[in-house]
């Protein structure tokens, strides 16, 4: 177990492939041969090697590890996201709707009226969950 390869610690097969490329590179393999052995393009290996060269040797493994995509920044500020629950707790009638049922479309419209930020109704459920607001069914929101 002392001779365990770095690539054995990978969280998925893509990461394992990148870490295996690192091992082969450290053994002196040419990039072309690494690409052939791993079934990837020379360009991919070149990008991995570039990342490796840009950091100290002890950080090489970390730059090849899988990173969670960050996504686009939120259009609502942290303060606005916290206020959203209070805004919805007033009820849909307070925002001019005929009943007190919150739908994703209504929530999206209310956010746009209150903050000037437009969200597609299909995204509203994820936004509410991220704000800690309970979602009931696929179209109703509990505030």
TrEMBL record:
<dbReference type="Pfam" id="PF13592">
    <property type="entry name" value="HTH_33"/>
</dbReference>
<dbReference type="GO" id="GO:0003677">
    <property type="term" value="F:DNA binding"/>
</dbReference>
<feature type="domain" description="Winged helix-turn helix">
    <location>
        <begin position="100"/>
        <end position="133"/>
    </location>
</feature>
<dbReference type="Pfam" id="PF13384">
    <property type="entry name" value="HTH_23"/>
</dbReference>
<dbReference type="InterPro" id="IPR025959">
    <property type="entry name" value="Winged_HTH_dom"/>
</dbReference>
<dbReference type="InterPro" id="IPR010982">
    <property type="entry name" value="Lambda_DNA-bd_dom_sf"/>
</dbReference>
<dbReference type="InterPro" id="IPR009057">
    <property type="entry name" value="Homeodomain-like_sf"/>
</dbReference>
<protein>
    <submittedName>
        <fullName>Transposase</fullName>
    </submittedName>
</protein>
């Amino acid at each position: 177990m002392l001779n365990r390869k770095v690539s054995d610690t990978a969280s998925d097969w893509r990461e394992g492939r990148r870490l295996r490329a690192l091992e082969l590179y450290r053994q002196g393999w040419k990039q072309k041969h690494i690409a052939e052995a791993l079934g990837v393009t020379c360009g991919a290996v070149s990008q991995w090697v570039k990342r490796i060269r840009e950091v100290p040797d002890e950080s090489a493994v970390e730059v090849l590890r899988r990173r969670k995509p960050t996504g686009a920044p939120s259009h609502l500020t942290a303060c606005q996201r916290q206020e959203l629950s209070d805004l919805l707790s007033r009820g849909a009638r307070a925002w001019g709707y005929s009943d007190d049922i919150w739908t994703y479309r209504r929530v999206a419209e209310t956010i746009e009226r209150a903050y000037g930020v437009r969200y597609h109704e299909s995204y509203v459920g994820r936004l509410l969950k991220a704000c800690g607001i309970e979602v009931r069914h696929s179209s109703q929101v509990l505030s």
